[in-house]
Amino acid sequence: xxxxxxxLFNFEPPATDDEVHDAALQFVRKLSGSTKPSKRNExxxxxxxxxxxxxxxxxxxxxxxxxxxxxxxxxxxxAKARSALRFA
Length: 88
Description:
The protein is an all-alpha fold and 88 residues long. It is 60% helix and 0% strand. The chain is built from three helices and no strands.
């Protein structure tokens, strides 16, 4: 599951709130061991996703770098190339 969490820092344009939320959701799924919580745990699950998304957004907004922003298309092409080598 956590392989789906992508690096979100230092991209142009910056990570969207949806991307941050999706990463938080994947993280909570990994920690909880389930992709869909039971009715009993639904509130705690969704609360955790929102809290982690907020913390992740705060982290991304406060980080600084001197590196040039990365290009999403170039990074996706690199990931596809690595995947092709790995699963060839």
